[in-house]
Amino acid sequence: MSRIAYFGPQGTFTEQAARALAGGEELIPVETVRLAMTAVREGEADAACVPIENSVEGVVPATLDALSESTPLVAVAEHILPVHFSVLARRGGGDIKTVASHPHALAQVREWLEANLPDARPVASSSTSAAAVGVLDGQFDAAVCAPVAVEHYDLEVLATEVADVSDAVTRFLLVRPPGELPEPTGADRTSVVAAAVNRTGTLAELLTALADRGINLTRLDARPTRNNFGEYRFFMDFEGHVAEPRILDALTALRRLCRNLRFLGSHPRADGTRSTIEPGAGNDDFVDAAMWADAVRKGDLA
Ligand SMILES: O=C(O)C(=O)Cc1ccccc1
């Protein structure tokens, strides 16, 4: 049985995603996203389940930072969860003066809190379940949690189905040390993080390397390198799988353009969306062009 570290404690959205991605495996709750990945890097877990991006709030910065540091990990699977929240409080508790949750959760219920708990001060906690634990401990008066949290924490449900944007979703990754990659399916996503040299036009060059090969970008985020003020790493997700000639060609182009390029995985997309293939940019076109160039080089073609 594999050991899967997940961003816990018990009852987080990430636990729900981990169950969907690796249900029969041993699930180990870990306090932060970074520590979940450290558990994998240090061999205490075989894989980690972490949140990566939300349709309302965007990327989870802690996940990007942990993916770019230390030894490489690659994403081998993803899961998308619809996200709505339950608001929990101590049984028989008094006024709600503080309401705690993960910053992503607070950002997604801001309007609801203003309308329903206008006097409560929002307080950031490390995860939605950490907020529930804080309510039990008397640290906060209410917590904005995943619906499953009530199964783990003896708290009263003040409200369910809370969400300012009703169809919000969060995408989660299963990451593990580099090894055999999942097979390409035609509906895949590839991720990289690029440390480009700091000169005019470098980001445009990276994006052009993809655009020239007809590769559709699905996410672009920048995070500071932390060492040099003004220097950034670019996280790019795009359609396709490294096993495809067109994607491999793009990766080698990116590698030439970057001071440092880290491959973060190729895996099937949870939404099943198949890659867009532009005219002249299919895998057959790349194979055919490479064969033609090879023949020219060998002098087989006039
Ligand atoms: O704190 C959690 O439950 C998480 O898994 C992170 C998170 C927070 C808010 C929305 C989706 C995921």
List the helices and strands and how they pair.
Elements: E1 3-7, H1 13-22, E2 26-30, H2 33-41, E3 47-54, E4 58-59, H3 61-68, E5 74-82, E6 85-89, E7 98-101, H4 103-108, H5 110-116, E8 121-124, H6 128-136, E9 142-145, E10 156-162, E11 169-176, E12 188-196, H7 202-211, E13 217-224, E14 232-239, H8 245-257, E15 258-268, H9 283-298
Parallel strand pairs: 1-2, 1-3, 7-8, 7-9
Antiparallel strand pairs: 3-4, 3-11, 5-11, 6-9, 6-10, 12-14, 12-15, 13-14
The structure holds 3-phenylpyruvic acid (PPY).
Fill in the keyword field for this structure.
single chain; alpha/beta; 29% helix; elongated; binds 3-phenylpyruvic acid
Task: Write a short abstract of this structure.
Its EC number is 4.2.1.51. The protein is 29% helix and 32% strand. The chain has 302 residues and is of the alpha/beta class.
Q: Find the count of extended strands (DSSP E, 2+ residues).
A: 15
Name the hetero compounds present.
3-phenylpyruvic acid
The main β sheet shows up as:
6 strands, mixed
Portion in helices: 25-40%
Relative strand content: 25-35%
**H/E series, N to C?**
EHEHEEHEEEHHEHEEEEHEEHEH
User: What's the Cα radius of gyration?
Assistant: 22 Å
Protein architecture, described:
With 302 residues, this protein is an alpha/beta fold. The chain is built from nine helices and 15 strands. Strands 1, 2, 3, 4, 5 and 11 form a six-stranded mixed beta sheet that branches. Strands 8-7-9-6-10 form a five-stranded mixed beta sheet. Strand 1, helix 1 and strand 2 form a beta-alpha-beta unit. Helix 7 runs antiparallel to helix 8. The model has no long low-confidence stretch (mean pLDDT 95). Bound molecules: 3-phenylpyruvic acid.
